[in-house]
TrEMBL record:
Protein name: Translation initiation factor IF-2
Signal peptide positions on this chain: none
Keyword Signal assigned: no
The protein's role, per its UniProt record: One of the essential components for the initiation of protein synthesis. Protects formylmethionyl-tRNA from spontaneous hydrolysis and promotes its binding to the 30S ribosomal subunits. Also involved in the hydrolysis of GTP during the formation of the 70S ribosomal complex.
Molecular function (Gene Ontology), one example: translation initiation factor activity
Gene Ontology CC terms, in alphabetical order: cytosol
Residues of the full protein shown: 37 to 512 of 611
Length: 476
């Protein structure tokens, strides 16, 4: 019972209350003290156990070695803002439309495939149609490694910029090989050699300098050297990756985009990673399930079968899956529904648990029993006030037991990224003459994130000060 546990914890030298959450480590100790084995199960393990009960394995299992077949590489385009990522994706999409293909009009479904000729062979490449590393990282965070190769776009007239470096870091952290597209070579002042030099600092050494990274000079606007870039992608894939998958298994993969369509209901673009997805399959993606009623490709043409690395739009889910959710095909509708239901129930529990854990100014003193650090995110209407507010807040005398930290600051409205960070680090968000809008407000409310609005600096200082004094630990 709780009282006995609090007592046991006390013996361990931990002062806790019955309703407070404790670290996994302490839980383990507590278990020993009370002669129980306590196992802390991660969400991934829990999900694996859930699938186990249905005799389903996700990922690892590739089936019979003899059934493995080559699959096209999946590419994400990353790089600094305005360096031409979107333009490049458009150009590739347009120049590689196969003749006779439904008038060649592609629609954005989140990914597309193109054909290119490399050494007399026709080779396919799949492009994720959302530029930037955000989607890439979000998918990785959910355990879905969707990308085989990263194309890093650098504008030759601008050079290596902060987001270029970020993109390289993300690719390297994921062990994804990089092809560098040096873009805008049509522009005056373009200096492609300088880009090669700059990038040596980040471990990307061009082949012509004895390294193993392929650099291709392109103009996304004029369509220059696009074929060479596609060839470089294929060659890099051939040289560094073993891209094989078993098309004979039940399909698994990842949902890369999903929305509610007025006429068609929930629509999800999925990328098949193994197996073959077919019309009629029972499917579950995250906590959404359904039966594949129809599949269409980026030309809005019907498809009956999708093999590994093929992106397709799936119609037939009963609700909208999340972008980045993994999907799998199961034997029966009943199983799909059960898996989805259990995941939903688990998510509700997890949200309930995490909501209770979060800090708000009102219950800071309670929260302090868990942590003596108050994390703040400051957003304001201009950089002057943001800096002034931060400086003033950091001057508050908080004593030695509490630490005030400004973990992020910026100009502009309160965004989803701010709320995500607040969730990850239990922070409070201060908005100075700026607000959160619509969905962001909902998300914050849902996750129990405290957002405070101010228009006078001293009001903000006053409130934080009060909260902090109320927050100081009672002395024994
Ligand atoms: P993103 O933010 O990286 O997606 O960049 P965009 O694709 O939106 O491109 C930013 C700007 O650069 C747009 O005005 C493009 O038309 C322009 N741009 C992109 N590629 C080229 C190029 O190869 N040459 C020139 N001159 N302009 C380009």
């Amino acid at each position: 019972n709780p009282a006995a546990m609090v007592q046991a914890m006390f013996h361990l030298g931990e002062m806790v209350t019955a309703t407070q959450s404790v670290s996994d480590e302490i839980l383990g100790l507590l278990g020993q003290e009370m002669n129980y084995t306590i196992q802390v199960v991660s969400p991934e393990e829990e999900d694996r156990e859930l699938l186990d009960t249905f005799d389903i394995t996700y990922g690892e299992d590739a089936g019979d070695e003899d059934d493995l077949e080559f699959r096209p590489p999946v590419v994400t385009v990353m790089g600094h803002v305005d360096h031409g990522k979107t333009r490049l994706l458009d150009t590739i999409r347009k120049t590689n439309v196969q003749e006779g293909e439904a008038g060649g009009i592609t629609q954005h479904i989140g990914a597309y495939q193109v054909v290119t000729e490399v050494g007399e062979q026709e080779r396919l490449i799949t492009f994720i149609d959302t530029p930037g590393h955000e989607a890439f990282t979000a998918m990785r965070a959910r355990g879905a490694n969707s990308t085989d190769i990263a194309v890093i776009v650098v504008a030759a007239d601008d050079g290596v910029m902060p987001q270029t470096v970020e993109a390289i870091n993300h690719a390297q952290a994921a062990s994804v090989p990089v092809v560098v597209a040096v873009n805008k070579i049509d522009k005056q002042g373009a200096n492609p050699q300088r880009i090669r030099q700059q990038l040596t600092d980040y471990g990307l050494i061009a082949e012509e300098y004895g390294g193993d990274t392929m650099f291709v000079d392109i103009s996304a606007r004029q369509g220059t050297n696009i074929d060479a870039l596609l060839e470089a992608i294929v060659l890099t894939a051939d040289a560094t990756l073993d891209l094989r998958a078993n098309p004979k298994m039940e399909a698994q993969g990842v949902a890369i985009e999903a929305h509610l369509d007025r006429g068609r209901g929930p629509v999800a673009t999925v990328l098949v990673q193994r197996g073959t997805l077919r019309v009629g399959d029972s499917i579950v993606a995250g906590d959404a399930y359904g039966r594949v009623r129809r599949m269409v490709d980026e030309f809005n043409e019907d498809i009956i079968e999708a093999t590994p690395s093929r992106p397709v739009q799936v119609i037939g889910f009963t609700s909208v899956p999340g972008a980045g959710d993994t999907f799998l095909v199961v034997d029966e509708d009943r199983v799909a529904r059960q898996i989805a239901d259990r995941r939903q129930a688990r998510m509700r529990n997890a949200q309930f648990a995490s909501r209770r854990k979060r800090v708000s100014l009102e219950d800071l003193d309670k929260a302090l029993k868990e942590t003596s650090q108050l994390n703040l995110i400051i957003k304001g209407d201009n950089s002057g006030t943001v800096e002034a507010l931060e400086a003033a807040l950091l001057k508050i005398d908080v004593g030695e037991e509490v630490e005030l930290r400004v973990i992020d600051r910026g100009v502009g409205g309160i965004t989803k990224a701010n709320v995500d960070l607040a969730i990850a680090s239990d922070a409070i968000i201060l908005g100075f003459n700026v607000r959160a809008e619509g969905k962001v407000v909902d998300q914050a409310a849902h996750e129990g994130i405290d957002i405070r609005y101010y228009s006078v600096i001293y009001r903000a200082i006053e409130e934080i000060e009060q909260a902090l004094t109320g927050m100081l630990k009672p002395e024994y």
